[in-house]
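User: Fold this; C-alpha cells only.

Assistant: Input:
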Amino acid sequence: NVPNFLTNPGSFRSLYIFSGIWQGMGWASLLYTAVLSGVPPELYEAAEIDGATILQKIRYIELPTMKPLIIINLILSVGGIMNLGYEKAYLMQTSLNLPTSEIIDTYVYKVGLQSGDYSYSTAIGLFNTAINLVLLLATTLIINRMNNRKVVAK
C-alpha cells in the first residue's frame, strides 16, 4: 500500500520543503562550480606545498572566493522568504491537505480573485511586501556591517 502524500496534511510541509531544495540544488551547484572554476590553480598548488589540509583549502581559498556569491544568494533568499511560490503551493493543494497547504499567496488569490474582496487582498499583499522590504533592508545592513568590520591582528 503506497501512501498518498498529497492527501496527507502532515506530509505536505516535508514534501514542499524537499521539492524546493531539489529545485534549487541544480542551480546552486552550477553557480558554485562556475565560481570555483575561476580559482587560479596556483593557489591550490601553493597550499599543497605549504601542507594545507582539505579543510584549510576550503577555508582559506574556496570560501573567500565564493563570498560574493554567497552574499548575493543570501540577499535574494531573504528577499523571497515571504514569497513561498504561489504556483507550486496552489498546484499541490487538495481539499484534504488545505489546513497545512494554505500560504499567504494562495490565500490572497482566493480572497481577491475568487471571493472578489480586492481591497482586503491588496492590503494583505502590501503587508507581505512591507515585511519583505524590512527583512531585505535588515539583511543588507547586517552584511554591510560585517564587510566593514576591521580585523585586528593578534
